[in-house]
């Protein structure tokens, strides 16, 4: 008899409207333990709204949502958020708070889900921060203020911070945005390393080449609707990505990573 897989996320007929406009429509999506998902879509496709529902910052207009065993309407959303690590390039808006803090202070603050330290930090917390600095190759920066770090170093610090609480889910929302190719590849290598240990990773991007080997499944969004959702090799195809990005594209695979090129179109004769 097959063992039933543990469900991590379930969306059933989910819709979300803003100012009377449909932002997400007919979202049916299930994520199981052991899977790691990439989410792809154009700007305005609904990716951010989907993440806001997963993290409990938006409530669906209709439909049912269960995240990490917590059914919306029957659970404490603030408690749910403690089980989710979140990293986004948008966190740069907190730079004015972080700029004079040391990287170990920023990492430890992840325990309290705060920007800045306002509660007592125990010796074990500092020890854990040291281990995370070692894992993310940040020890050479110990004691350095955040404002002296490169963009790639800052992203690594924020991911380490997100893991301080041992979250059951880690959401990486365009973590490579604005990085040069060296920093990007270093961050992707670390992303590959942190997958496992029953932690679900959700990776949001515009660039399919960032879907490293550890990403097992992909969700494609267009205009608030799911184009396709399933195993990476099945979903990352010319036809489905052309539909998602609204432009003819071609996919090639190299070292278990997909790469995208735009197909040339024949111009209509005059």
From TrEMBL:
Domain annotation ABC transporter: ranges: 9-248
Keyword Isomerase belongs to the record: no
Gene3D superfamilies named among the record's database cross-references: P-loop containing nucleotide triphosphate hydrolases
Gene Ontology molecular-function annotations: ATP binding
Keyword Ribonucleoprotein: no
One matching Pfam family: ABC_tran
Keywords of the record: ATP-binding, Nucleotide-binding, Transport
Superkingdom as given in the UniProt entry: Bacteria
InterPro entries per record: AAA+_ATPase (IPR003593), ABC_transporter-like_ATP-bd (IPR003439), ABC_transpr_CbiO/EcfA_su (IPR015856), P-loop_NTPase (IPR027417)
The protein, known as: Iron complex transport system ATP-binding protein
